[in-house]
Automatic annotation (TrEMBL):
Protein name (Swiss-Prot/TrEMBL): Maturin
Stored InterPro entries: Maturin
Main localization of the protein described in the UniProt heading: cytoplasm
Phylogenetic lineage: Eukaryota, Metazoa, Chordata, Craniata, Vertebrata
Biological source species: Trichechus manatus latirostris (Florida manatee)
Location relative to the cell: Cytoplasm
Keyword Nucleus: no
Cellular component, GO annotation: cytoplasm
Gene Ontology process terms (BP): positive regulation of megakaryocyte differentiation; regulation of signaling
Family to which this protein belongs: Belongs to the MTURN family.
UniProt keyword annotation of Cytoplasm present: yes
Biased composition, class Acidic residues, residue ranges: 107-120
Region feature (Disordered): 107-131
Record keywords, A-Z: Cytoplasm, Developmental protein
Length: 131
């Protein structure tokens, strides 16, 4: 995928997140992103013919630790798309952006389902005769 197509994907992704694509540098294949309150990172995109992966980094000391999840994801097996990488970065930065963790909601719904199923008094116990 050429760099302009990648930049278009990034623009589209930004429209659904708090991030803005603030700079692109085609020769370095670099895209810089920013969101309030001071959350910034950049992505280096691999060349078409190269087997390299995407690379994410931040020049902000406050942001860098939050990128570990995305960096681990990128270095795991398999090719990743820019969309997948950006989604993982967004998930990593949710706490810094003041947003709830997406996984917390799923866990709460799951917990609520489990709690509703507790009354088991109607079920016979194993080895206990019903006579």
């Amino acid at each position: 995928m050429d760099f302009q197509q990648l930049a278009d994907v990034a623009d589209k992704w930004c429209s659904n997140t708090p991030f803005d694509l603030i700079a692109t540098e085609e020769t370095e294949r670099r895209m810089d992103f920013y969101a309030d309150p001071g959350v910034s990172f950049y992505v280096l995109c691999p060349d078409n013919g190269c087997g390299d992966n995407f690379h994410v980094w931040s020049e902000s000391e406050d942001c860098l630790p939050f990128l570990q999840l995305a960096q681990d994801y990128i270095s795991s097996c398999g090719k990743k798309t820019l969309q997948e990488v950006l989604e993982k970065v967004f998930k990593s930065f949710r706490p810094l952006l003041g947003l709830p963790d997406a996984d917390d909601d799923a866990f709460e719904e799951y917990s609520a389902d489990v709690e509703e199923e507790e009354p088991e008094a109607d079920h016979p116990q194993m080895g206990v005769s019903q006579q």
